[in-house]
Design a protein that fits this description.
Elements (H helix, E strand, L loop, with lengths): L3 E3 L6 E3 L13 H9 L19 H11 L3 H6 L16 H10 L18 H11 L3 H6 L5 H9 L17 H12 L7
Antiparallel strand pairs: 1-2
Helix pairs in contact: 1-8, 2-4, 5-7, 5-8
């Protein structure tokens, strides 16, 4: 079946998700549907979304760059990264460079990005707060990690995410929900 949902106040209509592993009643279904329609996230070759699969640091960086509509800059990047663990032919090299340039992500150190490490809840909060321009405010509330957690909660970036700790490694469903929440906010530039 195919159901259309029109966004309030918009001419744009989005089909419900075609992913067989995303139930229409799932708490994250609308987020997956919207982000998929906007080409921020995609499924796997077998047509599934994989809501319970863990997200790596490279993957969330790509998703956030795509949400910021900066994919073309990332894909056009030919520069190597400053990180020894991101090879010149790494699939996310351009996205990592763009994320670092945008200031929403940094390495685990000056020379290590750890692209294949799973992203944690507190890391995702920091990335999203920074990506939408609230880093200065988060720094004013105590910086890493408290200020970012405070701002992520106050901006409803964490809405729909519960029962996890700062160190919980996030699933694709959780990351989709958080990115979708962040996309409802206005970007600020300071």
């Amino acid at each position: 079946y195919e159901i259309l949902r029109c966004l309030v106040g918009s001419e744009m209509c989005i089909r419900d998700s075609d992913f067989p592993d995303v139930e229409s009643t799932a708490s994250y279904a609308q987020a997956v549907q919207e982000l998929s329609a906007l080409d921020v996230i995609s499924g796997y070759d077998d047509g599934t979304f994989g809501p319970d699969k863990l997200v790596t640091r490279a993957e969330i960086t790509k998703m956030i760059v795509d949400a910021l509509a900066e994919r073309s800059s990332a894909e056009a990047s030919t520069e190597s990264t400053k990180f020894a663990d991101v090879s010149a032919d790494h699939w996310a090299k351009g996205y990592i460079n763009q994320g670092v340039a945008n200031g929403f992500i940094a390495g685990m150190s000056d020379t290590e990005f750890d692209p294949d490490a799973n992203v944690t809840y507190v890391q995702a909060q920091k990335m999203l707060v920074s990506a939408i321009g609230y880093e200065t405010f988060a720094q004013g509330q105590g910086g890493w990690p408290t200020g970012y957690k405070t701002y992520a909660a106050s901006l409803d970036i964490t809405k729909g995410i519960s029962g996890i700790t700062d160190s919980t490694e996030l699933t694709r469903a959780q990351v989709a929900q958080m990115i979708d929440n962040a996309m409802d906010l206005s970007l600020i530039h300071i």
